[in-house]
Amino acid sequence: MIDLPTIWFGILCLQIALYILLDGADLGLGLLSLLPKKESEESLMMQTVGPIWDANETWLVIAAGTLFGAFPLAYSIILNALYIPVMLLLFGLILRAASFEFHTLAHNKKIWSLMFGVGSLMAIVGQGTALGGLLGGITIVDGQFAGGAFDWVTPLTLFITVGVAFSYAVVGYAYLIKKTSHEMAGNSFAHVLVAAGVTFVAFLTATLMLPQMQYVFLSRWSTAPANYLLFAIAGAIGLVSLLLCYDLLRKRHREHLHTLCMIIFVLAMAGMLVGVYPYLIPPMLTIQAAAASEKTLQFMLYGIAPLLPIVLAYNFYLYRVFRRHMGPSEREGY
Predict the structure, then answer these.
(1) What gap in Å lies between CA 89 and CA 64, rounded to an integer?
(2) Which residue range(s) make up the domain with 253?
């Protein structure tokens, strides 16, 4: 018999993963736009993501719709528990989109570059605090959220948010190195190492806080076969990280740095999923308990089956067309 809730959980995770992977560079460059730099460099950074940034956000919209349709109980609980982080994320995305369009046509581009960075920062903080609140645990009584509006404000959330922000900065720098001239990206190699170091420390500290909350993820490290998968994933992350550091120190293979960052992201997300499965809201609500009726899941499957390949093909086409390097002499616009 087909396990529809698990299939939809896999589809939801795929959508979220694609959003993080594709929009990560945009958010990272948004953070970097807050740092002091020449106006020509700011414009060039904006142009590197000009043709693709709005298409990347498509996956977030699809993921939200999937969560609402396939797991309505989880949707209602998460939205009630994490209303402030979700609103911060949405307002950040709106500000980022408006700033990007105004930046293209405005005479005073500096203010809109700043707003693009502020919007990106809001979106990142919204994502980090939502993830921290979700992993920290949500109080559920009789299938409803029973906590307060600020339950997500914890030290764990703080370190997860810092880790998320600097991980996006790493991807932003790597994407900048990949897409721009070596002269502009020359100082970025050292910055990637620093941002990666802060990311590692922040996530390690957050992980060490989890035992105090009796988090389900920790028990998986001592339970077969999940522990074998987790150790294999951790080893793979270590090897790819070493390769990334080696290329950064040698300032070589700049076109591969972004790919290595993406591999680390995928492995980290896979490790988290192994650690929390089958919980959708750990450690309280399972996938089966949160799922919609079987008929609803079957009906939705007919709609999502052709949609995913179409959006994937669209993203692939965009990245294929706009894959070339860009330099300071590029004209404004996209």
Answers:
(1) 13
(2) 4-321
